[in-house]
Amino acid sequence: MSIVTKGATIPIFPCSSIDEQLDFYQALGFEITYRQAKPNLYACVRHRIAELHFFVLKKLEPANSYSMCYISVPDVDAVYKELCGNLKRTYNRVPSKGFPRITKLNNLAEDRRFNLIDPAGNRLLIGQKHTVAEPAAHDSSVVIPPSRFANAFETAYRLAYAKDAPADAAKVLDLVFSKNEEAASILQYKAFVLRADIASSMDEIELMRSFIQQADHLSLTGSELEEAMEATERLNELKTMLG
Question: What kind and span of H or E run contains 12?
Answer without folding.
Answer: strand 12-15
